[in-house]
Amino acid sequence: MATRFDATVEIDRPIDEVFAYLADGTHDPEFSPRVQRIEKEPAGPTAVGTVFRSTVKDAGMKSSREFEITELVAPGRIRWQERSKNLVTAVDGGYDLEPTANGGTSVRLFNTLEGHGIGKLLVGFAGGAARKDAPAFGQRIKAAVEASAAR
After folding, report:
1. What residue spans of the chain are helical by DSSP H?
2. Residue 127 burial by CB count (10 A; 0-12/13-18/19+): exposed, middle or buried?
3. Which residues on adjacent β-strands are paired with residue 62?
4. Can you give the C-alpha Rg of the chain in angstroms?
5. Peptide bond into 33 cis (omega under 30)
6. Is the dihedral of CA 19, 42, 143, 134 positive or negative?
7. 104-113: pLDDT as tens digits
8. DSSP annotation of 12
9. 127-149 pLDDT, tens per residue?
10. Residues near 70 by Cβ (< 8 Å), separated by ≥ 6?
11. Coil/strand/helix, residue 127
12. Would you give the end-to-end CA distance of the chain in angstroms?
């Protein structure tokens, strides 16, 4: 059984800038405290087929994650699938970006979580926690993108 969470946030930055920041992928630790390390392969601009490998910490346990970019349509759509097989994985996820009337960007993010093995019993709890955190997660993305413009 799969479960999904999503959130929408408005970011006070132009869509091209927000897309570039999110597509880079290596910024995840700036807005996701569970991501302890991330690397991109191959180096260079993100494209369909780019793989991100990360170490994350959930509920006190570290795990390795591997995500592949499956769709990248500038400046409005990013999709990924998790290639690793942990107890709970994000079978698909993404960002949908739209320009706002005031020159900012509306970002909808989502992940579909699926349990494997004993993770089938845990996916409901993981999904509930993700849905509860989704608005705050969106706000962390907003803060990180807007702060990156100040650099």
Report:
1. 15-24, 28-31, 119-150
2. buried
3. 57
4. 15
5. no
6. positive
7. 999 999 999 9
8. S
9. 889 999 999 999 999 999 999 98
10. 48, 79, 80, 81, 92
11. helix
12. 43
